[in-house]
Amino acid sequence: MAPYTHINGTFYDPLCTPCPCLFFLVSAVSMFLNTLTPKFYVALTGTSSLISGLILIFEWWYFRKYGTSFIEQVSVSHLRPLLGGVDSSSPTNPNTSNGEADSNRQSVSECKVWRNPLNLFRGAEYNRYTWVTGREPLTYYDMNLSAQDHQTFFTCDSDHLRPADAIMQKAWRERNPQARISAAHEALELEDCATAYILLAEEEATTIMEAERLFKQALKAGEGCYRRSQQLQHHGTQYEAQHRRDTNVLVYIKRRLAMCSRKLGRTREAVKMMRDLMKEFPLLSMFNIHENLLESLLELQNYADVQAVLAKYDDISLPKSATICYTAALLKARAVSDKFSPEAASRRGLSTAEMNAVEAIHRAVEFNPHVPKYLLEMKSLILPPEHILKRGDSEAIAYAFFHLQHWKRVEGALNLLHCTWEGTFRMIPYPLEKGHLFYPYPICTETADRELLPTVFHEVSVYPKKELPFFILFTAGLCSFTAMLALLTHQFPELMGVFAKAVRSLWPAQLQSSLTHS
Questions:
Q1: Would you place residue 108 in the very low, low, confident or very high pLDDT band (cuts 50, 70, 90)?
Q2: Model confidence at 80: pLDDT above 60
Q3: Which residue ranges does the record annotate as region Disordered (predicted)?
Q4: Exposed/middle/buried for residue 92 (C-beta within 10 Å: 0-12, 13-18, 19+)
Q5: Measuring CA to CA, which residue among 278, 269, 315, 277 is closest to residue 296?
Q6: Could you tell me what percentage of the chain is helix, strand and coil, using 3-state DSSP and rounding each to the nearest 5?
Q7: How far is C-alpha 456 from the chain's CA centre?
Q8: Is this model's pTM higher than 0.85 or not?
Q9: Calpha distance 20→93 (Å, rounded)
Q10: pLDDT of amino acid 432
């Protein structure tokens, strides 16, 4: 039998009756609170409001920069493992682990940054924009990626054997544009260097015609180097690397010459040059020349040839792009858009051709949901970056910048897009967790797009639109509530003092009642 506890002349059974020590403690705390003045409550509520306001500002800044709540991230990353939490997304059996690993691998590959096939000329277009507006259209990250591309495509290990190539190898690593241009002129004083002409055409030429003239000189020098290295490519790894470099240089020059013809209005000539280039170097798909060809064919309104190119490249085994998906949607929309009416379609239902067009639009929107707002001019366009992220805002800008005119040319195409594109999201209620026709939308696009796009004057499109985290709303409410209490206590100290005493008087009674019932 358990002994009884004797306190103040009363015996208590500790197994049945709660010890009154807790009541004494509550009474002491209540007496302490009764001695506090209204000034203390003003200071307390004011300090609480200030602290919660600082937390709110920090949470909002962190959310705008990184797209997630700092408190939630810390709790999930650090506190949850300490409390023994298990990640519900981890696979529970080996069968699902393989599928999720493949999905994660696909997600990582989709977050890869690609060279923009239709990138503008830095001197003749990007720099002209800077001169007129005073804004920098390219970010440092984007230009740094271009420098890495140039070093990969235009240099090789044997460049130090040729003085002009050795100078250009250093020039591609130079950050200062004027130093790069000076190095290119220095290389040309030694010999006709194809890569030096490329650099001058890209960065020093202020017009497309001047760039085309320099690229023609580069073509003459590049073809000579290519023929010489082609004969020696089997003599060793060094010659093979040199031939690979010369091949990249020649393909780049011909592609840019075709783009010059397209920009100068000689579209048929550009199409011929692109077709010849694709036949001569069919394995160099890294340049995505077919996307340049699609845009030129759309300009000629040669839709049969566009369909033929799509039949070759819109394959399940090949990486998709916004150009592929939205061009396929445009062709199917073209067959029905001129007679499409939402009211008529709601009465009689969609025909087979209309259903195919709507499904193609849904497919394109699922691949890149940022494009429709640019095509429908719900969001302003900027100059496209030199690199894009597939399924991201950067790819949407690059596509809409060149293809908006083609959608406008097809009567009713934009109207059909306007009426149907939002229906895609009804099929994919939670796009980050699952996909319908493609893999789930990767979560890494926003971070990469913020590095590629000039966020100073462009608001990066985010999909899906992130809602404010709970802790931001909670700290906002806490800040507002404590600030209101501080203001009321300062303005009406007697009234708030009576209210505080009334609240305090309820605590011991409620606590004693709950302990007694327990």
A1: very low
A2: no
A3: 87-108
A4: exposed
A5: 269
A6: 70, 0, 25
A7: 16
A8: no
A9: 54
A10: 44
